[in-house]
Amino acid sequence: MDAELLLLALCTGLGLGFLSLAVRQLAAVVRLWAGGLRVTGVVTKRVAADRRRGGLVVFSDHLGRAVVIDPGSYGPLCGLPPVGGRVPVVYLRSRPGAARLWTLRHLLAPSFGWFLSSTLAFGTAVMVTA
């Protein structure tokens, strides 16, 4: 088998896989937008032993239970206010543990990353065939 054809197939497969992940992330955002419950969470500090940046978000779900979500290491880059600040949170009633911050950057960052990876893989496939 020709190495160029193998690289083309690999890049196209990766591009389609990344594109499907991007569409899946966008579908999750649409589900949250259409049927999610919006509440306000409070940003709290991490424990001293945790060396990751940013804070944790604590909110109460529809049953009154306290739920803690970790916006990740890029929380401050995605619009997470400083410790003690309030942030809007959205979650599906059936899955409060899978809550997301209700900010445009935090909701769309994963799908943008997958679309960018898909574009890079498809671009590599086009350059291989040229």
UniProtKB/TrEMBL annotation:
It comes from the Bacteria. Keywords: Membrane, Transmembrane, Transmembrane helix. The chain crosses the membrane at residues 111-129. This is Secreted protein. It comes from Streptomyces sp. R08. The lineage of its organism: Bacteria, Bacillati, Actinomycetota, Actinomycetes, Kitasatosporales.
